[in-house]
Design a protein that fits this description.
- A hairpin with a 2-residue loop joins β1 and β2.
- By secondary structure, the protein is an alpha/beta fold.
- α2 crosses α15.
- It is an enzyme of class 3 (hydrolase).
- This is 3-hydroxyisobutyryl-CoA hydrolase.
- Its EC number is 3.1.2.4.
- It catalyses: 3-hydroxy-2-methylpropanoyl-CoA + H2O = 3-hydroxy-2-methylpropanoate + CoA + H(+).
């Protein structure tokens, strides 16, 4: 492959290297990139000289900022034919990563959001650094957390996952480990040496040799109001509890929620609660595919991307504009079978 290709395969010793290579776009995933990653994983799965796979991001800013949401917005405005095909392949890749037969080591250095979580947090060894900022920010652009995000966040301690899913808050290394999104902390400056070690010894031995103590996180200290305020199945009630709690951080969270898509908030809470009872990641990805396809047909995703990414005025015009205007039928459509059929991952698993 050429240096300008969006995914660069490589080798060091018996470790295969997979570099996401769109640094100017913060390595945002395209449909082509998903295909290239899948092709590399297929080749390495059957290569006896490969004993581990390492995924990392090119540039200094991070692993991956997510899917190419500009392209999703353009597709939504044009009628929404391309995005379901992209998600179908992306979610299948997420499931494959979770069940990959060789150690899959993810360097979650810098920004890791949305689709970046999907390509890393389902791996067998997930490494964060002091630079890591991990988030599922979908409610801010009119979407529901996907790429297996509802499966991961629904299993975080207490209501931490609910808080992160609804607000889209980015967390650092310690909190990522606490929430089950990562396993080990390594200094960013040590990643090149860790890469070489992964080619020489077993992945767990290599990572343990470079593991560092994480800086203190902030979520543990906020568990009291987070667990209290988010422990219900109604977004309006959550906002009311946060507003009335008395902790300034709780009030700030309420203010953040009121800037998010009201429809996406209610749909996210419903999908997240349902994910708690799902037995597998594949079942959660099936549910997320239904939710993503439903969101594509609504006005909030184009409005959110315009406000956050295109015009950057941070003033989305949500429709409906308030939580009280979102009806049960609006949320129910996020659970309906898409016009082109579902993903079918859980059924394929047998």
């Amino acid at each position: 492959m050429a240096p300008e290709d969006p995914v660069l395969p490589g080798r060091t010793g018996h470790a295969a290297l997979l570099t996401l290579n769109r640094p100017r776009a913060l390595n945002a995933l395209t449909h082509r990139m998903v295909g290239l990653v899948d092709e590399a994983l297929t080749a390495w799965e059957h290569d006896d000289t490969v004993r581990a796979v390492v995924v990392r991001g090119a540039g200094e800013r991070g692993l991956c900022a997510g899917g190419d949401i500009r392209a999703v917005r353009e597709d939504a405005l044009a009628g929404g034919a391309a995005s379901p095909a992209f998600w179908r392949d992306e979610y299948r890749l997420n499931a494959r990563i979770a069940r990959y037969p060789k150690p899959y080591v993810a360097f979650m250095d810098g920004i890791v959001m949305g689709g970046g979580v999907g390509i890393s947090a389902h791996g067998g060894l997930r490494v964060v650094t002091e630079r890591s900022r991990v988030a599922m920010p979908e409610t801010g652009i009119g979407l529901v957390p996907d790429v297996g995000g509802t499966f991961l966040l629904s299993r975080a301690p207490g209501e931490l996952g609910t808080h992160l899913a609804l607000t889209g808050e980015a967390v650092g290394a310690s909190d990522a480990v606490l929430c089950g999104l990562a396993d080990h902390v390594v200094r960013s400056a040590d990643l090149p040496a860790l890469t070489e070690a992964l080619g020489e010894t077993t992945p767990r031995q290599a990572v343990r040799a470079f593991a560092a103590e994480p800086a203190e996180g902030s979520l543990a200290a906020r568990r009291d109001w987070i667990d209290t305020c988010y422990a219900c199945d109604d977004v309006e009630e959550i906002v009311a509890r946060l507003t009335g709690h008395g902790d300034p951080a709780a009030k700030e969270a309420a203010e953040t929620l009121l800037t998010r898509s009201p429809t996406a908030l209610k749909a996210t809470l419903a999908v997240l609660r349902a994910a708690r009872a799902l037995p597998t990641l594949e079942a959660a990805l099936d549910a997320e595919y239904r939710a993503s396809c439903a969101a594509l047909a609504l006005p909030d995703e184009p409005a959110g991307v315009r406000a956050q990414i295109v015009d950057k005025d941070r003033r989305p015009r949500w429709c409906p504009a308030s939580l009280r205007e979102v009806e049960e039928a609006d949320v129910a459509r996020f659970f309906a079978e898409p016009p082109g059929g579902g993903l079918g991952l859980a059924a394929a698993l047998g």
